[in-house]
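In practice, a research group might receive sequence data for several interacting partners and want a quick structural hypothesis before committing to experiments. The following worked case mirrors that situation: the sequences arrive first, and a predicted assembly follows.
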Amino acid sequence: MSRSLLLILVIALVTLFTRVLPFWVFGGKRQPPAAVLYLGRVLPCAIMGMLVVYCLRGVTPTAYPHGLPELIGAVSAALLHIWRRSTLLSIAVSTAVYMLLVQAAF
Amino acid sequence: MVERGSLFVNRRALRAAFPRTIPVMAGYLVLGAGYGLLLQSRGYSFLWAVLMSTTIYAGSMQYVAVDLLSSGASLLSAGLLTLMINARHLFYGLSMLEKYRPVRGVRKGYLIHTLTDETYSLLCTAQPPEGVEAEGFYLWVSLLNQLYWIAGSALGGLLGQALPFDTTGVDFAMTALFVVIFTDQWLDRKNHLPALIGVGVSFLSLLCFGPDRFIIPAMAGIALLLMLLRRHVGEEAEL
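A structural hypothesis for the assembly, expressed as tokens:
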């Protein structure tokens, strides 16, 4: 309980820090350095890739069911999203597919 | 005349803000409910969902936080992970500097705390209609969006408590969320090097350090490689 609260406090403070920082540092007239702007542009893509790997880190391709439910779920999310471009639809359908796979098929 | 005064008597700003937030309402109620349900499935009641949606208020980070809570993550690695996932906020802040410059005190603090991806995307383009005070408009959009998110996450938690159905696999919603954002970014950008670096470095790090220790080396490797390859990513990475 207290560990959970402490963890939430840290996450909340660091999140607030990332939001406040630009206003603190560049609230005056100073221009942000090019490196900061560059990272602000390219980090989101790289970090999203990292988070996909993070979510799938527990998958063991060498043992049954060989990560198949995760693969099918992730590919269906991506394909559905390329087709319809609707975040909610892609997440809802692929999660339902995954739940069906792990509860009924594998 | 521009109506001024306390946020809560500024009805004109509310009337202007509410219709703009309807798309976010749909998204936040559903994604928030998924979040509350996920948290509930790990044994954290809807009160935890409300607490986290109020204090952290960052969607993808909150999904990751569910994992951090139920695994044995250290405070340091949780802090670093938060820093990396939320680094994009720096960019949002930079482009809102001018708009938020005249706002002062607690109100400015609240606008900054509630600058999520969705609120940012509404406010960086939307202008308040003629005769509506900009500050009240920004505040209402920000407040309404956060209320949707809090309500959604609380409802999800309560729903999970009230209807005990088999939630096995519901945590895939988090994977799906990141796959969808990743796909969005992939389709929106010409240069795929940052995305490939993110996946590639993380995968290598996972192979080298294993599932419990790979995240910090992965973050360091990604930041380093992005800086080294700046010339190749550079200008093309413009939004």
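Before designing any experiment, note the following. Chain A has four helices and no strands. Chain A touches chain B through 66 residues (CB under 8 Å).
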